[in-house]
Specification:
The chain is α+β, with helices and mostly antiparallel strands. The protein is built from seven helices and nine strands; from the N terminus they run E-H-H-E-E-H-E-E-H-E-H-E-E-E-H-H. This is LAMI_0D02102g1_1.
């Protein structure tokens, strides 16, 4: 077999990866999941059933109240119903089809090894994923329901990719964790993941998020990359920046939210008994 010809001088060799074509709009909450290559659809299917079961378990009362509200609307007077319908028409897309507001909706990112599930109220992504991790780590739960899913990352909220919007996002997401009156000084770290993203440099993101945490040095929170109390996750994908905050058990107990590693550890412990 002959040797493969080298590219001519001055020519760049082709990169062996695909550029993602999917887009995430700003102001989205949800969950990223990494998965085995070329098994993105299967991973989404696995997660779809898993997530829905957990939604039914955690939020059935909230969803029932939403249904009751819809039924109450049917009892409105004719005049009030007309007003309500006119308000709803303003949000109807041009094709005339009213958009359904699913609690869970998978967005096709067309990105290798990554899927994204958009969530709506009452789902809170960080709490929701933490509940799932508790289930996964339960030593009495040895039934693994996912084959292709690897790691889950919650996104509390997201914004468009600019430094100004990043600051606003950080102020919004970090407030309840670091800026509550009377909160004791916390150790924190910032973890940034960038996919098909080059709008803002990684270190610039970390510095700005850290500045917001400490309010420019006014608060006593300190950086600790290994023994943190809180980890700020920043997920950058194309024109979107998402953010969430997780506790130290992310690192210690839940294997950085890696489902595969959690089950592998449990299986080894079971075999060792």
């Amino acid at each position: 077999m002959g040797k493969r010809a080298r590219p001519a001088e001055g020519q760049k060799s082709r990169k062996k990866y695909k550029i993602a074509n999917g887009i995430l709009e700003p102001c989205v909450s949800g969950i990223y999941a990494t998965c085995a290559r070329k098994h993105e659809k299967q991973a989404a299917q696995e997660l779809g059933q898993l997530f829905q079961d957990k939604v039914d378990e955690l939020y059935c009362n909230d969803l029932a109240e939403s249904q009751d509200t819809a039924e109450d609307n049917a009892e409105l007077s004719v005049e009030d119903q007309i007003k309500k319908e006119l308000q709803e028409l303003k949000s109807v897309p041009r094709d005339g089809q009213k958009a359904k507001k699913e609690v869970l909706k998978f967005i096709d990112l067309n990105c290798e090894c990554v899927v994204f599930c958009k969530t709506r109220q009452p789902v809170q992504p960080a709490d929701f994923v933490h509940e799932l991790m508790q289930d996964f780590a339960n030593p009495n739960n040895m039934q693994k329901r996912t084959r292709y899913v690897q790691k889950l990352t919650p996104v509390t909220f997201s914004t468009s990719a600019s430094m100004v919007e990043l600051t606003k996002l950080a102020e919004q997401v970090l407030k309840s964790h670091f800026h509550v009156e009377g909160v004791t000084p916390l150790k924190f770290a910032v973890e940034v993941t960038r996919r098909n993203f080059n709008t803002i440099e990684k270190m610039d993101i970390i510095k700005e998020v850290a500045r917001v945490v400490g309010k420019g040095g006014q608060l006593g929170h300190t950086v600790d990359l290994k023994e943190y109390d809180k980890l700020i996750l920043v997920e950058c994908f194309k024109n979107n920046i998402g953010m969430s905050v997780v506790d130290s058990d992310y690192r210690t107990k839940y294997k950085r939210y890696n489902v595969q590693q959690i089950y592998e550890a449990k299986f080894k412990e079971r075999e060792a008994v």
